[in-house]
UniProtKB/TrEMBL annotation:
Entry note: cofactor: Binds 1 pyridoxal phosphate per subunit.
InterPro entries: Ac/SucOrn_transaminase_bac, AcOrn/SuccOrn_fam, Aminotrans_3, Aminotrans_3_PPA_site, Class-III_PLP-dep_AT, PyrdxlP-dep_Trfase, PyrdxlP-dep_Trfase_major, PyrdxlP-dep_Trfase_small
Gene: argD
GO cellular component: cytoplasm
PROSITE patterns: AA_TRANSFER_CLASS_3
Cell compartments where the protein resides: Cytoplasm
UniProt record, GO biological process: L-arginine biosynthetic process
Summary of subunit composition and partner proteins: Homodimer.
Pathway as given in its UniProt record: Amino-acid biosynthesis; L-arginine biosynthesis; N(2)-acetyl-L-ornithine from L-glutamate: step 4/4
Organism from which the protein derives: Testudinibacter aquarius
Protein's UniProt name: Acetylornithine aminotransferase
Keyword ATP-binding: no
Note: May also have succinyldiaminopimelate aminotransferase activity, thus carrying out the corresponding step in lysine biosynthesis.
Length: 400
């Protein structure tokens, strides 16, 4: 039998990633085992995807049942799981209409295309400007990576989509300086994830809502990472009381099975008439059935309360460790999306510390070169949480 190792990656796969030195082969709850049988406490949940942990029994049961029933039927047909999932998302949010795709990038691509198409339908082709924010991240398609505010991801691919403006995050005056009657949309992450776990302020999001209303532009919330309970509410917009016109969701929607959703109003959705936009696999019965179960679990008030309680425990634990270690300058975030910004002594060493944590049996994320990101499963057990914190503290102690 062929033995596949980390070295095999360097031989057969395109080198657009630099994965860890070990290969996970099994996961249950918030524990992962590698090829050698070593266990790790997972504080990444697959980059905020496995919000119910690895292979949760109740979700696996749905996966098996639907897997023996109907996987795919194409968008020439609808399916009962898709109708059920859409109905639940509408019941739980501001939305009146839902469209399914397969990834966060696809959901954001659809949202941006819908915003432009809606503007053309109602105001004309001149209303095409999109306002985004520096250091934002919205996906890897050419459109979404151009709208994202990190040129390192969009440069080098030839001409970019036009009429996209980037301004500083949490700076309402900067938005006021560029928004006008030609603006069709403002897109924002309520918490910037990849750039360092930076929450938007209440006043900023409220101001964006008012400006979009004033200039008849659509407000798009990218909740690919912050949605489905990650923030301690079902969606982060619920913390702020600011309702977007379009919202995108992916990552945790089916706990790792690929699916995404774009949520909007009935009026706006009409600009996606038949044939205007589509996707082969989007809304397939298997993904939707799994997502229904995930949504049923995470949307329960008692579950979301537990997320908020665990968030406090995580922040308190990190601050306690930091009292003696002086590793961080600040610990910030919302729910179980927490960023710990490194002190001057450890600048540009986030990836190095992440790799070192692996040696102590704990899996971490980074958010840029100077922030360690903690995004454990929303239902991580007390035992796994305590062990993960203990191992992280051991790693920090080793730095001294």
């Amino acid at each position: 039998m062929t033995q596949y190792t980390r070295a095999t990656f360097d031989q057969v796969l395109i080198q657009n990633y630099t994965p860890a030195d070990f290969i996970p082969v099994r996961g249950k709850g918030s524990t992962v085992w590698d090829q050698d049988g070593k266990d790790y406490i997972d504080f990444t949940s697959g980059v905020a995807v496995n919000s119910l942990g690895h292979c949760p029994d109740e979700v696996v049961e749905v996966l098996k049942r639907q897997g023996e029933t109907l996987w795919h039927s194409s968008n020439w047909f609808t399916s009962e799981p898709a109708l059920e999932l859409a109905s639940k998302l509408i019941e739980l949010t501001f939305a009146e209409r839902v469209m399914f795709a397969n990834s966060g990038a696809e959901a954001n691509e659809a949202a941006l295309k819908l915003a432009r198409r809606y503007a053309v339908d109602h105001f004309g082709y001149q209303k095409s400007k999109i306002i985004s924010f520096k250091q934002s991240f919205h996906g890897r398609t050419l459109f979404t990576v151009s709208v994202g505010g990190q040129p390192k991801y969009s440069d080098g691919f030839g001409p970019k989509p036009a009429d996209i403006v980037h301004v500083p995050f949490n700076d309402l005056d900067a938005v006021k300086a560029v928004i006008d009657d030609h603006t069709c949309a403002v897109i924002i992450e309520p918490i910037q994830g990849e750039s360092g776990v930076l929450p938007a302020t209440q006043a900023f999001l409220q101001g964006l809502r008012q400006l979009c209303d004033q200039y008849q532009a659509l407000l798009i919330f990218d909740e690919v990472q912050t949605g489905i309970g990650r923030s301690g509410e079902f969606f982060a917009y619920m913390h702020y009381g600011v309702v977007p016109d379009i919202l995108t969701s992916a990552k945790a929607l089916a706990n790792g099975f690929p699916i995404s959703a774009m949520l909007t109003s009935d009026k706006i959705s009409k600009s996606f008439s038949p044939g205007v936009h589509g996707t082969t696999f989007g809304g397939n019965p298997l993904a939707c059935a799994v997502a229904v179960k995930v949504v049923d679990i995470i949307s329960q008030p008692h579950f979301l309360q537990q997320v908020q309680q665990r968030s406090k425990q995580l922040i308190e634990a990190l601050e306690k460790i930091n009292q003696k270690a002086k590793l961080f300058t600040t610990v910030r975030g919302l729910g179980l999306l927490i960023g710990a910004e490194l002190a001057a002594e450890y600048q540009d060493k986030a990836a190095e510390l992440r790799n070192k944590a692996n040696q102590f049996g704990v899996m971490l994320l980074v958010a840029g070169p100077n922030v360690l990101r903690f995004a454990p499963s929303l239902n991580i057990s007390n035992e796994e949480f305590a062990l993960g914190i203990q191992r992280f503290e051991q790693m920090v102690d080793s730095l001294a």
